[in-house]
Structures
1.
Amino acid sequence: MTAVSTFAAPLGRFLLAFIFIFAGFGKLGDVQGTAGYIASGGLPGFLVYPTIALEIVGGLFILVGYQVRVTALLLAGFSLLSGFLYHYLPAQGMEGFAQMAEMNQFFKNVSIAGGFLLLTALGAGPLSVDNRNDGGTPARA
């Protein structure tokens, strides 16, 4: 195993996890406003707490490499759904630069989902909780 393959997976997990952890804690700063924003996409505002939990806990799981396959699949679905409801649909009523900017946000969500689908397929990789056996030593593939 090369140094690149050893450190690329945890760095990739960090980069994917960071936006969710940051966003989850940000939502805690304005729960009522976040509930209103969730409702603006046609979903019930009470989903604010499960959303915050998914972003923070899911982000932390991805970061440390714990239960990565199932967590990544959940976050891929979340990214696609939120991208569609809160970026793609609103962009349909816009024109020019505003529409382009909103569609860029949608495609960013799609790209993040792609990264999560890779984690779902390939697993957490080295330097992760998932890649350790009960004895605390690296598990064999």
2.
Amino acid sequence: MTSGQQGGPGAAGMIGAAAADIIKDTTTANFARDVIEASKSALVLVDFWAPWCGPCKQLTPLIEKVVRSYNGAVKLVKMNTDEHPSIAGQLRVQSLPTVYAFRDGKPLDGFMGAQPESAIRQFIDRLVGEDKAADLGEALKAATEVLLAGDLQQAAEIYASILQEDPQNAEALAGLAQCYIKSDDFARAEQTIGLVPPDKRKLASVMSVHAAIELAKQGAEAGDTAVHEAAIAADPKNHQARIDLSIALAARGKKLEAVDQLIEAIRLDRKWSDEAARKQLVKFFEAWGFKDEAAVDGRRKLSSVLFS
């Protein structure tokens, strides 16, 4: 069913080496190489056809045209079931033409009969979209791990590459904004997080960036820790001074000490000023992220105080 294939439909003429790799015929002996192995690096469609099949002659030119338009992201492998019936039998092909899509060495979807070009494209778009989403998910996971390890430049590069593919990816925008926050570039962090689509602004990662930016602004206004420490020494129940001290400590990177100040305020009077100390602690947790060491320690201490 390729160009120049005896007995099969398709456009006449010679095709180059690159095109031949995108669209090819296969045999029972070569199926593992041409389909199973090839599908580990790209989506592979397998077109089961026969020379006597009229609908096959309608489908083949269309599916070839569509596959070529993906510039190598999708490959088409064609199998003449008259000459090579065993694979079709194993896959329980009942009628011709039948098209199976393979990914990672396994069949995942398919269709039977001649289809219009729009339906073929829709079928492939859905499967390619799933591949793209999976790839972006892996990239996001890698970027997060690098960010947690402290390599801000590499994390930012990965997030930027994701945004080249998906400019409105909220998780990547939030991750890139976190890189700016950790570099003390709050203006660019605010600009970046502002690009998140409205329907994604309630995501935990996005809210964490907003919390971190707000915390940075609080820290800039928190003043000298010595002033707050002196106020607490004069009156250990000066809860506002303790909250202000926690903010000042957090701004200086002393997150564990900041948590301890708020835990002490909660222990002394958890209801003071509409639970202001607990609410400030929650802001810290949102800004630092769920896996942050100080956030983990703070949640444990908070639970101990609240349920003791």
